[in-house]
């Protein structure tokens, strides 16, 4: 039996029941999931692959799991697409991307193999697999971007996560890399035929500021600017924009096509929530740029004992750059699945208050906090007599404070984090997407987003509003159901 057959057999046999997994967020059928990979449109469908280790709920030799959707919300699981079954990827098929190329769906990923230096080090090189949307064959020319293509001084141990696109007759890819000063950088390559790649330039580097190794680059135009998304490892907290550890950031600026270099103008956190990393985008046929992230954290790997799956994706989000702000909002297709509206316009909340019909764990909730005499306004959800998860709006500080201390977590992990509101307005507009084990908060029409996970018992589905004075609010609550 091949490694791919083995993984597929295992996935079929041990698949966790759908009821144990999120309703509309992609999660693995069984075992471990990390980064989104190969997020692309092919033959009329949206494909999403992911870093996958079916055999345990821990990271292990990487496969590519696979699912497909027609609307970014309802996903169908497909057989495992790649297994680490060749000498050049025996230590794992790491992250990568995909494009539609004529009739074929072309995947590019990082093949990892142990080096023969005997010191436990690995070599990372970029490899191609070509398929029909269901089955993929690795090409004979692999690795198509061998480490020898890198200029001297570039790391061959940290050379990964290719993101590929096409402009006219030329294919480009960016890959994460490390330089001699141990700093993260993004290397740009080009090709006329996908099989032979030439090194072009360092598109951007971290200038000693943003973490160490840069993982999972993605580069695309937005309005009259270009955006480079990277996921730096080992960042240090800086003001309230960046927290410690791994996170995804966006560099926004002008692309100098002569030098193939991004002249960055601003660098922002994509989502400062406790669980967001390795974001990747695709362009939908209608032109929208859609981003998805891994809703998890390398440093805080929490899940209840006995759960058969681990790791999930965010809701795919529409990206827009307006007046220098990178907006992100749940794909509009989610609204098709809204059921049982409860709409309370302009109601007054003071003290602790529950609103009839406003409860549940698979929800889309809009909350506008309009005016009133108060300092703090909180919403507690996933709540029962012993548990809750909370967002608290501190009006004077213009901050939103997150707290999952009482979500039933039994590890000493980060439970509280604050986010400064960047575009303060008189009315605070919040949209809260809940899907059993996760909350994604979109602030002021998506000017900021915050993703987090928790494993409060599923029966804990109360929602309570708390106000230390009086506030006028508008509440709109929908249940999300896929059928
Ligand atoms: C990011 C990452 C990638 C790598 C993959 C391995 O989370 O470390 O750089 O390709 O995960 O699973």
Write the layout of secondary structure elements.
Blueprint: H1 3-14, E1 31-42, E2 45-53, E3 63-69, E4 75-82, E5 92-101, E6 104-114, E7 122-131, E8 136-138, E9 159-167, E10 170-178, E11 184-191, E12 198-205, E13 214-222, E14 225-232, E15 249-256, E16 261-269, E17 277-283, E18 289-294, E19 309-310, E20 317-322, E21 325-330, E22 338-353, E23 362-373, E24 376-383, E25 389-394, E26 399-403, E27 416-420, E28 428-435, E29 438-443, E30 448-453, E31 462-480
Parallel strand pairs: 1-19
Antiparallel strand pairs: 1-2, 2-3, 3-4, 5-6, 6-7, 7-8, 9-10, 10-11, 11-12, 13-14, 14-15, 15-16, 17-18, 18-20, 20-21, 22-31, 23-28, 23-31, 24-25, 24-31, 25-26, 26-27, 28-29, 29-30
Bound molecules: beta-D-fructofuranose.
The site of beta-D-fructofuranose has 13 residues, from strand 1, strand 5, strand 9, strand 13 and strand 17.
Structural description of this entry:
A hairpin with a 4-residue loop joins strand 15 and strand 16. With 483 residues, this protein is mainly β. Helix content is 2%, strand content 53%. Strands 22, 23, 24, 25, 26, 27, 28, 29, 30 and 31 form a 10-stranded antiparallel β-sheet that branches. The protein has a 5-stranded mixed β-sheet with strand order 4-3-2-1-19. The chain is built from 1 helix and 31 strands. 46% of the residues are buried. Bound molecules: beta-D-fructofuranose.
């Amino acid at each position: 039996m091949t490694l791919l057959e083995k993984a597929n057999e295992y996935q079929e046999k041990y698949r966790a029941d759908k009821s144990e997994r999120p309703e509309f967020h992609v999660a693995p059928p069984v075992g471990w999931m990390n980064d989104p990979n190969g997020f692309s449109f092919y033959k009329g469908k949206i494909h999403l692959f992911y870093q996958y280790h079916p055999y345990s709920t821990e990271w292990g030799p990487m496969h590519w799991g696979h699912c497909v959707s027609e609307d970014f919300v309802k996903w169908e699981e497909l057989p495992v697409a790649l297994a680490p079954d060749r000498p050049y990827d025996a230590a794992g098929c790491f992250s990568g991307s995909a494009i539609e190329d004529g009739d074929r769906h072309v995947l590019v990923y990082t093949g990892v193999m142990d080096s023969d230096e005997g010191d436990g080090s690995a070599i990372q090189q970029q490899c191609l697999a070509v398929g029909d949307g269901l089955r993929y064959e690795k090409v004979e020319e692999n690795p198509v971007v061998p480490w020898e293509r890198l200029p001297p001084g570039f790391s061959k141990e940290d050379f990964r996560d290719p993101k590929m696109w096409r402009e006219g007759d030329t294919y480009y890819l960016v890959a994460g890399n490390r330089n001699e000063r141990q700093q993260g950088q993004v290397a740009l390559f080009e090709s006329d035929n996908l099989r032979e790649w030439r090194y072009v330039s360092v598109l951007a580097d971290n200038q000693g500021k943003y973490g160490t190794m840069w993982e999972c680059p993605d580069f695309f135009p937005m309005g009259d600017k270009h955006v480079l998304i990277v996921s730096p490892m080992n960042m240090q907290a800086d003001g309230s924009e960046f927290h410690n550890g791994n996170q995804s950031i966006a560099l926004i600026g002008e692309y100098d096509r002569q030098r193939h270099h991004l002249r960055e103008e601003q660098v922002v956190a994509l989502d400062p929530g406790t669980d967001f990393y390795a974001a990747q985008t695709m362009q939908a046929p209608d032109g929208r740029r859609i981003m998805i992230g891994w809703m998890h954290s390398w440093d805080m790997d929490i899940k209840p004992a006995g759960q058969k799956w681990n790791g999930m994706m965010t809701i795919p989000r529409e990206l827009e750059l307006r007046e220098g702000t990178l907006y992100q909002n749940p794909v509009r297709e989610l609204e098709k699945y809204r059921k049982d509206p409860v709409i309370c316009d302009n109601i007054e909340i003071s003290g602790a208050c529950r609103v009839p019909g406003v409860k549940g764990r698979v929800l889309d909730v809009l909350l506008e906090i309009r005016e009133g005499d108060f300092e703090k306004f909180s919403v507690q959800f996933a709540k029962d007599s012993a548990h809750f998860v909370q967002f608290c709006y501190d009006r004077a500080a213009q901050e939103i404070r997150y707290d999952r201390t009482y979500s039933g977590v039994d590890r000493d992990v980060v439970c509280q984090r604050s986010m400064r509101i960047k575009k303060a307005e008189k009315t605070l507009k919040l949209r809260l997407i809940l899907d059993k084990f996760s909350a994604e908060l979109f602030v002021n029409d998506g000017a900021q987003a915050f993703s987090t996970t928790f494993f409060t018992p599923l029966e804990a589905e109360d929602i309570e509003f708390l106000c230390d004075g009086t506030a006028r609010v508008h509440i709109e609550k929908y249940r999300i159901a896929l059928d």
